[in-house]
Amino acid sequence: MTYLSGKKIVVMGVANKKSIAWGCAEAMETQGAEVIYTYQNDRMKKSLQKIVSEDAFLVECDVASDESIQSAFSQIKDYAGEIDGIVHAIAYAKKEELSGNVTDISRDGYALAQDISSYSLIAVSKYGQEILSENSGIVSLTYIGSERAIPNYNMMGIAKASLEASIRYLAAELSPKKIRVNGISAGAIKTLAVTGVQDYQKLIQLSEDRTPDHIGVTIEEVGNTCAFLISPLSSGIIGDVIYVDKGVHLS
Ligand code: NAD
């Protein structure tokens, strides 16, 4: 039995087949959902077109721009009417803010990382809520670097702490409208975004060393939890951040 049959879910942040968002999209399709994809720019559109089916609905959405987000959700409304969920799997910080000293983070770099990696969830929720159905879900992706000082994760750790607080505040605001907002704290996975962190191999190694079988969590495992959190099966979970890291957070 599939538990997302007939549901329409917007997935934001697929860059390629290694993206966590791709694991989420595939899991939701397996559960019977139709996935609507957003992409950042033309380069990402080309990359996305190579991996999605020909009839998939793709919409440009650069989260740096309110106009772009508003226009994306207006196009999605015209196409789908209502939607049943949004996966926000988007983050960005300049390379120089993901190495060295936290005291060297620039004012501009701080603002940019917070804007794309944290504020964007608020902006997406603002426009998304207008077309989200009752009993729908919003899920965003975070990392344990929000709670612990992980070497070189620096600016992104600070942005993820802000993202997690945003998840809780958004959840409190939107739950009376029957929209649940939650987060997944995923273990380190080799994707395009993670390679921006200096010595990112050590992050991946850390995640593999601490799992019981020394195999790091996969995008499929993160995707399955995401599909569950989007679905009404998780109706009791509101404003939470769930670890999907195969136990890395335990030690
Ligand atoms: P990824 O590079 O595959 O995905 C990042 C996505 O962010 C890309 O699709 C990119 O186009 C998008 N993006 C960046 N700036 C954007 C903008 N201005 N507008 C629209 N989209 C924009 O990497 P990923 O690791 O799959 O990242 C997805 C999420 O998962 C991120 O929030 C990341 O921090 C989080 N996460 C990743 C890991 C990991 O180890 N890879 C662990 C925990 C959490």
UniProtKB/TrEMBL annotation:
Its EC number is 1.3.1.9. Pathway: Lipid metabolism; fatty acid biosynthesis. Keywords: Fatty acid biosynthesis, Fatty acid metabolism, Lipid biosynthesis, Lipid metabolism, NAD, Oxidoreductase. SUPFAM superfamilies: NAD(P)-binding Rossmann-fold domains. Signal peptide: none annotated. CDD domains: ENR_SDR. NAD(+) binds at G13, S19, I20, Q40, D62, V63, I90, K160, I189, K190, T191, L192, A193. The active site is at Y143 (proton acceptor), Y153 (proton acceptor). It catalyses: a 2,3-saturated acyl-[ACP] + NAD(+) = a (2E)-enoyl-[ACP] + NADH + H(+). One of its GO terms (molecular function) is enoyl-[acyl-carrier-protein] reductase (NADH) activity. Gene3D superfamilies: Enoyl acyl carrier protein reductase (1.10.8.400), NAD(P)-binding Rossmann-like Domain (3.40.50.720). Substrate binds at A93. One of its GO terms (biological process) is fatty acid biosynthetic process. Belongs to the short-chain dehydrogenases/reductases (SDR) family. FabI subfamily. NCBIfam families: PRK06079.1. This is Enoyl-[acyl-carrier-protein] reductase [NADH]. It comes from Enterococcus phoeniculicola ATCC BAA-412.
